[in-house]
Design goal:
The complex is a heterodimer. By secondary structure, chain A is α+β, with helices and mostly antiparallel strands. Chain A has 5 helices and 5 strands. Chain A folds into 2 domains: 1-76, Ubiquitin-like (UB roll), CATH 3.10.20.30; 79-176, Orthogonal Bundle (DNA polymerase, domain 1). In chain A, helix 2 packs across helix 5. Chain B has a 5-stranded antiparallel β-sheet with strand order 4-5-10-6-7. A 3-stranded parallel β-sheet of chain B has the order 1-3-2, with helices on one face. Chain B is globular. The chains are: A alpha+beta, B alpha+beta. Chain A binds chain B through residues 1, 17-21, 24, 40-43, 45, 48, 54-57, 60-62, 64-65, 67-68, 108, 126-127, 129-131, and chain B through 1-9, 11, 32, 35-36, 39-40, 43, 52, 54, 56-57, 81, 104-108, 110-111, 191-192.
């Protein structure tokens, strides 16, 4: 069968077997190996991608079911050459050891912060409760997500300050 | 690598079309909604449908929670996350939010649906017990029309429901009765696991604050998720009290039929059926009183 969908903003058309799982479609057909394939039973969460903006376990979604929809993978987190704050957080706070669970963790974390920009530790732990880090690095994963949240809050503050400076300059007619 | 056996994928774009497709394909077809029960079963060859009818495009038609004065109507394609986040539903039947907090994990809840859970009819599944407690009815649609089936008749046994070939579960209806509330108590080994045991209780008080009616549904402690018989008869007309909860718990423990497995022994699961039924009733009563 033919499937048409959007992956990381780009339209994709492919001829696939009806039974192909989304995780294998992304990895084997599109070469997007950032999405990892783990337990195959929707337990470990390393295969998490977004389907229409919601994190889903791509080992338990058919590629055919994604037809007509938008998929975003870990490769789509970076924008204009700049790593997403969640990716930066994982670097800053050692959020990965072996790195196997990392793509799924980051996709879930990004979705969490989009809905809840200032999550508590408990909310972060709840959000990633369907994902397994066998290095058991949960403490640093949580800290990485907290770093991203703090970074985004500071950046928003800085941008407000910048806007205020521009407004103040305009008000007194000085060159900004 | 786990992949399902070959099948033909079909997609429905309206309820009408889904029913036409299912009627045309007969017993060779299965409906796939969230897919988080069916696809794992297909990977293990426990299910080998020749055709899958994907109904996810029907979310506009079948994804809703409508709280009316007399009843709550939940579209079959309403996802677990939507049930969890519905404040209107939590206000009238808090048992749904209790259960949804502990069903699978947040990512799975983005995908799984109430209709899929009920149609899977896994005796360890949570929403069957919940819907049993709140006395829900399932609306099944086929080419011949629509019929409404109470949970006791909907659930025919493990992995078997009243939904026939060419039919689709489209809605779950939950009656609203005054001075009632509900609660769900579950013990699981770790986040996202199936229940070791769980108890859903719904309870209604009369004008004098005595128990007017009560329904308890158990999960994971036997082949049946139908309401535990004898509890309502034992508790009606009594003051809500620890003694009453204990009696209900004892009936639940006696009437359930657990098997020993990796999650626990028969004795442990009976103990949980007892204790969780007491806790669920205690919480339901506290909620009833809070709402006056």
């Amino acid at each position: 069968m033919q499937v048409r969908l959007t992956v990381n903003g780009d339209p994709v058309t492919a001829e696939i077997e009806d039974r192909l799982l989304l995780v294998h479609f992304l990895r084997d057909h599109l070469g997007l190996t950032g999405t990892h394939w783990g337990c195959d039973t929707s337990n470990c969460g390393t295969c998490v991608v977004w389907l229409d903006g919601e994190p889903v376990k791509s080992c338990t979604v058919l590629a055919a079911m994604a037809g007509g929809h938008e998929v975003r993978t870990v490769e789509g987190l970076e924008r204009d050459g700049e790593l997403d704050p969640v990716q930066q957080g994982f670097m800053q706070c050692h959020g990965l050891q072996c790195g196997f669970c990392t793509p799924g963790m980051m996709m879930t974390a990004r979705a969490l912060l989009d809905r809840n920009p200032a999550p508590s530790e408990e909310e972060i732990r709840e959000a990633i409760s369907g994902q397994i880090c066998r290095c058991t690095g949960y403490a640093t994963i949580v800290r990485s997500v907290q770093w991203a949240a703090a970074y985004e809050a500071c950046r928003a503050e800085a941008s407000r300050a910048e806007a205020s400076r521009a407004e103040a300059s305009q008000a007194v007619g000085s060159a900004s | 690598m786990q992949v399902p056996a070959p099948f033909e994928y079909r997609r429905a774009t309206s309820v009408e079309e889904a029913i036409d497709l299912l009627g045309e394909l007969g017993s060779s077809a299965r409906v796939v909604a969230g897919g988080h029960s069916l696809l794992p079963m297909m990977k293990l060859r426990l299910a080998t449908p020749e055709r899958l009818v994907d109904i996810n495009d029907l979310h506009g038609e079948l994804g809703y929670v409508r709280v009316d004065p007399g009843e709550v109507r939940i579209g079959a394609l309403t996802r677990h996350r939507e049930l969890l986040e519905s404040d209107d539903l939590a206000a009238v039947h808090p048992v749904f939010r209790d259960a949804e907090r502990v069903i699978a994990d947040p990512v799975v809840r983005n995908r799984g649906t109430i209709g899929g859970s009920l149609c899977q009819a896994d005796p360890a599944e949570d929403l069957s017990a919940v819907c049993t407690a709140v006395d829900a009815a399932c609306v099944i649609r086929g080419a011949g029309g629509t019929r409404e089936v109470p949970m006791a008749e909907f659930y025919r046994g493990p992995f078997e429901t009243a939904v026939g070939d060419g039919e689709l579960l489209v809605e779950v209806r939950v009656p609203r009765r005054p001075r009632g509330s509900s609660a769900y108590e579950k013990v699981e080994r770790r986040a996202g696991d199936w229940a070791v045991a769980a108890s859903a209780a719904a309870l209604w008080l009369d004008d004098d604050g005595r128990i007017a009616d009560v329904r308890v549904g158990l999960s994971a402690v036997g082949p049946s998720t139908t309401a535990v018989e004898g509890i309502a008869e034992a508790l009606r007309g009594r003051e809500p009290s620890e003694e009453a909860y204990a009696q209900a718990g004892a009936i639940a423990a006696e009437r359930c039929n657990p098997v020993a497995d990796l999650r626990g022994s028969v004795e442990y699961k009976r103990h949980l059926a007892d204790e969780l039924t007491r806790r669920a009733l205690r919480r339901a009563v506290a909620r009833c009183r809070r709402e006056g």
